[in-house]
Specification:
alpha/beta
């Protein structure tokens, strides 16, 4: 199953992505893919230390595409580079069981829209391989722009979860994401409401989401344990008694069912 998680910056989608990946890895093999410019998925899993994103691996990009990263326009390079070995060789193993692997994609520095360069070609080819070829569960921590997903890749995503919080700005972002996801062919979308302080907030967000024609598959309460886990550098999964973790576990059960 391939799950993309997106939403407005700061709504908590990386916490949801990392925690879902931990929960699912208890039963399945999982690839957690960080495709967000902020690249915080590693820290949400409790992985510390510097990580070089794939977009910055200049030697690898040159080896696989035949051109330097950041090459000038017009330079010839391979549009279909060999990448089948990269998910395993570039991933970071999480935990002792080997069921969860992390890949940090990184972003492309570009002056305008529609960058076609060696780095972007490699990232998109790698994303296609992960979503179209891999049998494992894939959790994609995306930005709202979903820039790594091409149309064919998007069509193979089983579910896109839009994380929203009780506020109009977050709901407006959800509306834009819904249109973009529809344009590129993502078949199923759903929402998770995060940072809920009370029933009034949850009812407000639920009503606005339903007006967009989207389904709500769960809500996560505002929880001090989320802040604590971040401060201590641990995954939320280390606090299984926390209200937020229990809510995400219920969301995982809904997704699997």
């Amino acid at each position: 199953m391939k799950i993309a998680i997106t939403g407005k910056g700061g709504v908590g989608k990386t916490t949801l992505s990392g925690t879902l990946a931990c929960i699912l890895s208890q039963r399945y093999k999982v690839f957690a893919i960080d495709a967000d410019p902020d690249m915080n998925l590693a820290s949400s899993l409790g992985i510390t230390g510097p990580i070089t994103p794939i977009s910055k691996m200049k030697d690898l990009i040159k080896e696989r595409t035949g051109a330097e990263s950041g090459s000038s326009f017009g330079e010839v390079f391979k549009m279909n580079p060999k990448i089948s070995d990269l998910p395993e060789s570039l991933s970071i193993n999480y935990g002792n069981e080997g069921n969860l692997k992390l890949l940090v994609m990184g972003t492309i520095d570009k002056g305008g829209e529609g960058c076609i360069c060696p780095a972007s070609v490699l990232l998109k080819a790698l994303m296609r391989n992960l979503i179209l070829k891999k049998d494992e569960y894939i959790i994609l921590d995306m930005e709202a722009g979903i820039e790594h997903l091409g149309r064919k890749t998007a069509e193979a995503v089983d579910l896109m979860i839009i994380v929203v919080e009780p506020g109009l700005k977050s709901i407006e972002t959800a509306a834009r994401i819904k249109k973009l996801a529809s344009d590129i062919g993502i078949p199923k979308l759903a929402c998770v409401i995060n940072k809920v302080s009370n029933e009034k907030e949850e009812n407000f967000a639920t009503q606005k989401i339903k007006e967009l024609g989207l389904e709500v598959i769960g809500s996560i309460p505002r929880d001090e344990e989320v802040i604590r886990s971040d401060m201590e550098g641990h995954p939320l999964a280390k606090y299984p008694d926390s209200a937020a973790f229990k809510s995400i576990a219920k969301i995982a059960d809904i997704i699997l069912s």
